[in-house]
Amino acid sequence: YGEPLAKCVGIITPFSAQVNQIKTACGEFDIKAGKGDDQLTVGTVHSLQGAERKIIIFSQVYTRHNDGGFIDMDPSMLNVAVSRAKDAFLVFGDLDIIEAAPSSSPRGLLAKYLFTDERNELEFSVGQRPDLLQICGHPKLLTNAEEHDAFLS
């Protein structure tokens, strides 16, 4: 977009604890995050009403281990998050909780738009990580949530 990150990207999440984690992570990469004019906008849905950006990243936090019902409790919450995006609304997290939601719920309506066109999906190639060999002689590549959960148990 030819603009500073703070002018074109915003990050929205339902929980203030996640806001704090994102701000901390941004700080580790020398990215100023908060609500100032020269900062990457990061906040909860409630705190960012009116903060439009070309790209909104929605960090939903929920996994299949909790149903994500908090997002559906107030239909305007997800509407506010989506309406902050002028060009793109990127959802990060376990998309199963969106896809499995009842079609009439806010998450179900979001699923309709996210999953109708496969061009909406972002795919990432997995590159070699020789740095991991320094920690573990035989790393195992985990490619999905099921493998991740099995690895942790």
Give the SSE map.
Layout: H1 5-8, E1 9-13, H2 16-28, E2 33-34, E3 40-44, E4 53-59, H3 69-73, H4 75-83, E5 85-92, H5 96-99, H6 106-115, H7 130-133, H8 145-152
Parallel strand pairs: 1-3, 1-4, 2-3, 4-5
Commentary on this structure:
The chain is α/β, with parallel strands linked by helices. It has a single domain (5-123), classed as Rossmann fold (3-Layer(aba) Sandwich). The protein is built from eight helices and five strands, in the order αβαβββααβαααα. The chain has helices at 5-8, 16-28, 69-73, 75-83, 96-99, 106-115, 130-133, 145-152, and strands spanning 9-13, 33-34, 40-44, 53-59, 85-92. Strands 2-3-1-4-5 form a five-stranded parallel sheet, sandwiched between helices. The longest helix is centred in the N-terminal third of the chain and has 13 residues, at 16-28. It is globular and about 50 Å long. The termini are far apart. The mean pLDDT is 80.
Rg (CA only): 17 Å
Helix content: 25-40%
Report the principal-axis shape: globular
Q: What value does the average pLDDT take? A: 80
Number of separate domains: 1
- Work out the helix count: 8
Could you please say which CATH topology applies here? Rossmann fold
The unreliable regions are none
Going by CATH, the architecture would be 3-Layer(aba) Sandwich
InterPro entries: Coronavir_polyprotein_1ab, DNA2/NAM7-like_C, P-loop_NTPase, SF1_C_Upf1
Domain DNA2/NAM7 helicase-like C-terminal: 7-94
Pfam family, one: AAA_12
Keywords: ATP-binding, Helicase, Hydrolase, Nucleotide-binding
